[in-house]
Structure formats: structure tokens, C-alpha cells
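Researcher: Here's a chain I'd like modeled. Treat it as a single chain, no partners, no ligands.
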Amino acid sequence: MKNMLVDKSFTDTAGEMLGNVPSVRVIGKSTTEIVNHKGLRSFDDKQININTKVGTLCIEGFGLEVTGISDEYIRIQGDIRRIFYQ
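Model: Modeled as a single isolated chain. C-alpha cells:
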């Protein structure tokens, strides 16, 4: 992919260090990156549910959208209000 949103070396290193345990990076109130996910469970503009090795990660807010996705990471942008495991 020519314009990757997350440097591949970052996702490779995070996966090795964490043993495929999900890592959640929050950047301000508008961007979240999840490394080591197991796929999207469901999504709309108010809630995105992501499968992980340790359960379902839920992101709630307004105007949410998936702006980047690969086998290793997902990037979510929008007005993020709450992040929690279900």
C-alpha cells in the first residue's frame, strides 16, 4: 500500500512485544488506532465493535468512520466519546 496510515515496522514491533494482545492508541479526541485486532464485528457512525483476542473492543461517539484497516491495525476517526471492552 503506497500511503500507509501506520508504519508497518510499528505494527510488526507491537505484535512481537505484546504477543498479539491488542494495543489501543488514542490520539486526541478524534483518532484511535488498534493494533492486533481480529476483525470488525459491527460498525455504524455511533459505535464500532472490534474483535480482539481478549474480547470485543467498543468505540462510541459521533460521526465515527474506519479510515484505515489492514490485517494488523484499524484506524477510527470521529468524535470519540468512550472506549471499553465488552
